[in-house]
Amino acid sequence: MRTGIATVPLDYGRCPKWLFERMKRLSRGIFLAIREEFGPEEILKRLSDPIWFQSLGCVIGFDWNSSGLTTTTLGALKEGIRGIEKELGIFVCGGKGRTSRKTPEQIQKWGEVLGFSQEKIDKLIYASKISAKVDTSGLQDGFQIYHHNLIFVGSGHWTVVQQGMNTAFQKARRYHWSSTQLKDFVEEPHSGIISDVKVKPLNLTARESNQNRKVSTELIKEEPKTFLRDIKLILRKTNYLIRQKRLPGFTEMQMPNIEFHWHPVVEEKFDLRRLERTIFFAKSQQPKNFEQLLALKGIGPKTIRALSLVAEIIYGAKPSYEDPARYSFAHGGKDSTPYPVDRATYDRTIEILEKGIQRSKISLSEKIAAQRRLNNLNL
Question: Taking a C-beta distance cutoff of 8 angstroms, is the pair 238, 228 a contact?
């Protein structure tokens, strides 16, 4: 049995039409097979697993180590099931670039078609918006979100798959969410994050950041003037010490393209007038918790970072800088790294993908090629 790591370098260009058409047919067959045997909820479960998703993209024919695997696999799925969404019981909203911004509109449309109450529709729209906000502002890892899909079923359960890019690394990372596994939109909400590079993010989604989140929210609710005074003081002193090379224990280093490439002590550049307007607007909304603060319009990464900085430096509430992303071993390794091989899961993954291949309405040669890719997959 072979093991490996799925890397996700950032690629440019388009998927050839001939390949995309085959990916549509094959993904359609695979998901019809899953629907027939397990039901639509199982489709959501599998899409929320970053390793299964990676395997799916490889099997239907896209480059195994490309950022385009995410965008093209989801695009092929969305187009492949067009017209049979109700039969399949699954609805794909959103996409890449401008299409991602149409996700709420598409959720609304499908919700009305299915006879959902507006409350149920609004919950789906909120899930789409807050997941994007969390992966932009709550987890500040240097990857800019450019692809976003929310996939849901009739019960109202959903999965979010979105991808961010980091042009400096020429890398992408994919974020997975599952409503069935979700306990909190803010604290450790992901079902998985796949990446082949580790960073030192401001990770306010970590359990260890709980106190920092609480203090940040209280700064907005109770002490905006004090906060603004403190952030000005911190920036003035920190930037001066950095310029003078007199910050105790601080060494300026450039370490590109390796794991420890970034240090949390940096020279921040804030538009303090804009920050002040944002802070007083947020106070007027009186958010009850960090999730409500994060959901406010106009609250972006810099505002959250400023609040976190004051909470840490002035009030001693340290945030986490641990990266929640994992490397993408599919079913463990032969040497038990990162964990022993789960043979039952491995065999079931192969069995389901094989059934999908055989039931797809594609030519015999295409089925043989897909089966060969499955057999050669670096699981």
Answer: no
Kindly report the backbone phi and psi dihedral angles of residue 129, in degrees, each rounded to the nearest multiple of 5, phi listed first.
-70, -45
Residue 161, H or E segment: strand 158-166
| 35 close to 88: Cβ distance less than 8 angstroms | yes
CA of 192: how far to CAs of 47, 195, 209, in Å? 11, 10, 19
pLDDT digits (tens, 9 = 90+) for 188-226: 999 999 887 889 999 999 999 999 999 999 999 988 899
Alpha carbon 45 to chain centroid, angstroms: 15
CB neighbour class for 376 (10 Å; exposed up to 12, middle 13-18, buried from 19): exposed
> Which amino acid is residue 183, in one-letter code?
K
Please count the other Cβ atoms lying within 10 Å of the Cβ belonging to residue 198. Answer: 16
C-alpha 61/C-alpha 18 separation (Å) is: 11
Q: What proportions of the chain, in percent to the nearest 5, are helix, strand and coil? A: 50, 15, 35
Instruction: For residue 326, give the 3-state DSSP assignment.
Output: strand
pLDDT in tens, 108-157: 999 999 999 999 999 999 999 999 999 999 999 999 999 999 999 999 99
Which H or E run contains 171? Answer: strand 171-178
144-153 and 90-96: which strand pairing? antiparallel
What's the sign of the alpha-carbon dihedral 209, 182, 144, 100? negative
d(CA 233, CA 228): 9
